[in-house]
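Homework help board

Subject: predicted structure for assignment chain

Our instructor gave us this sequence and asked us to write out the predicted structure in token form, then describe one feature. I got the tokens but I'm not sure how to describe them. Can anyone check?
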Amino acid sequence: MADKKKKNWKGVVPFADDQKTLHENLEFTAVEQYKLLRTNLSFTLPDTDGCKVIGVTSSVRGEGKSTTAVNLSYVLAENGKKVLLIDGDLRIPSVAKKMKIASTPGLTDMLRGENMVDLAQMKSAYLSNWYIMPSGVLPPNPSELLGSKRMQTALETLSAHFDYIVVDLPPVNIVSDALAISKYIDGMVVVVREDYTEKKELENCFRQIRLSNVHVLGCVMNETKEGKGYYSKYRYKRYYKYYKTYGNYDNADKNTADKSKPVK
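My token output:
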């Protein structure tokens, strides 16, 4: 039985099934934008020693947060850092499916103390310094579990072994999970999808983030249509400016376009 579990942990295939996931399957422009995101994060993360814990979320489903979490953790590891990717979406996890590994044992097993997680078994087949922890068995109380002292202890324990921990989290407007864990992370990256994310949803997302005192590191905008052939898949800087504007709700222009329309 022990051998079978060990095999499942290492069951990573050379290429993931999502053509937007992982360095080998990305267009050059998208790869460069993820590297730009990596560089920008080095300026926005707290200037402290030790492991940096980054949450990745969105306002609603379908914006590409999980793909972004996978690719961000990959480029961080590619830069020589020891990185752990955690699937913290304990409702609809997708990291294990994208990476074609077993979903258990994982985070919930570690939090419940039922299985000792062997870090060596979490090592990916892509890079020797890139580790992946799936969600584990889905719990009945995801929000409480992510905001628990057990989660804090788990992150503190894991931080001793890594330079970065990237946590894929559920959308803010759907459930409170991402906000529950926010007190244990260094900052949050918010993912937005052009012609999909509604402005009212985005506004509500940032309102909740601000009320929870979450440190937003910036935003990633994907599936952009402008500038064909020139960094058109993923953008960071342009949408960061939009966030800074929308973050000031008191001075927001009330005569802007209908906020029920998708972001453009």
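Reply (TA_rk): Your tokens look well-formed. For the description, you could write something like this. The first helix runs from residue 2 to 9. That's the kind of observation they're looking for.
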